[in-house]
Amino acid sequence: MLAAKLSANDLARAVNSAEERRFGQPGNASDRHVRRWLSGETELPQMHYLVALMDVFDLAADQLGFTLSGARARQLAVLQPRSTLLGDTPVEPQEDHVLRRQFMIAATGNLLSFAFAPLPASGRIGMSDVERIRESIDQLHAVDDAYGGEQLADIAEEFVGQIEAAMGRCVYGPRVEASLYQVIGELHASAGWFAFDTGDQPRAGRNFDSGLRASLLAGDRMLQARIWAYMSRQSWELGRATETVTIARAALEATRNGRDYRLSALLHGRLALGYAASGESTRCASALARAEIALDRAGGTTAPAWLAFVGPGELLGAAAMAHMDLGQADKAADQEEQGMRLLDPAFRRNRFAKSVHLAECYLASNEPEKAVDTADQALTLSPSVNCPRWAMRLGEFRKHVADLRLPATKAFVERYDVTTS
Questions:
Q1: Of these four, 12, 87, 130, 352, which has the most CB atoms within 10 Å of its CB?
Q2: Does 299 reside within a domain?
């Protein structure tokens, strides 16, 4: 600080700017934070501050005077300091052929690193490059399954930009071109779903539209159907029952002769949601039956990363949502209970969502004790899952049970307030 003639306020502003460059949003450091770091009152800054300080001074954390635990040192080992203020030699922008990494803070507070597929700086793009891109996309969905996708839309959109830049400066054949549009469409589809899960519906819609355009250029009907499945779910969330059914039907028709059985199950589940929202219980039941048959046919086949969540637990969850719309809360609670038992433990984000929904089902069926017990399980998961859409619903649940003034609900409200603060 002395060498750069920085005051505490100056350093706080520099840290906040460095955080924005790293993570896409400015930090909230103040001169008070800086004084605590200087005095030793704070022995080790929080991870996001520490990374920003490394960037500002172009030094590793231990060179800044902080003592690191073994775990924290391993988390920071993937980072190269990139000076924003003091480096003698300006840091050159990274070329796209270099293995790029993007970092995010997980709900647990740990730093997660994503390695983007290396793309050629010039010359020819081949199918091996496309396969590496697909591996990076699978990484994003693995993190979404475990932690939720709050920051993943930014990463997916940035990756699209890198691929499009490589396409502008390299050569490739017709087969590779179609595959590149395919992975761009997949990334837009993923970004749209991640944005939807955070509650940013306009951003989700923009990505779905871009994904459909890329799927048309790639000539990939399965990708179109995937995006329509996302759009159908979004329409149901926005209260557009007829549109939910129309989009799901279009996806089923477009892939009539060659769709994955899990995709069939997912799309029939979307139909069931639309029919239930319209009050058509008979059609809803038929759609759920067709979804179950399709899932049985899938057997033990390996699903694409984005479709891996579709299993018995997911299907029972869709049935529970449909029966809640039909006013059958008791039946919905039974189905969501079964779905929770059948859910793969790897899908922690989905377990959080299903716990919140089961609590809503219990509350609607006049079982407040069971409701708050289940919501308490969701609250236990919440610090390790970034899923704003369902976190908001858990907050709405807290408001509803606070009015009941029962001992069990009072204890839950107090724990919720402490945990979320």
A1: 352
A2: no
Residues 382 and 318 in one domain: yes
Q: 241 with 208, same domain? A: no
For residues 356-378, average pLDDT: 95
Alpha carbon separation from 102 to 52, 109, 117, 183, 305 (Å, rounded): 14, 16, 11, 18, 20
Which residue has better confidence, 350 or 421? 350
Q: Which CATH number is 397's domain given?
A: 1.25.40.10
Mean pLDDT in residue range 351-368 = 96
* Chain segment 239-261, per-residue pLDDT in tens: 999 999 999 999 999 888 777 89
HSE on the CB side for 326, CA within 13 Å?
Answer: 23
Query: Are residues 278 and 338 part of one domain?
Result: no
Q: Does residue 376 form part of some domain?
A: yes
Cα–Cα distance for residue pair 195/192, rounded to 1 Å: 5
Identify the domain containing residue 246 by its residue range. Answer: 231-290
CA 93 to chain centre: 28
Asked if residue 226 belongs to a domain, the reply is no
Condensed to tens digits (0 to 9), the pLDDT of residues 34-45 reads 988 888 888 888
Indicate the pairing of strand 111-115 with strand 101-105. antiparallel
Task: Say whether 301 sits in a helix, a strand or coil.
Answer: coil
What does the mean pLDDT of the chain come to?
Answer: 85
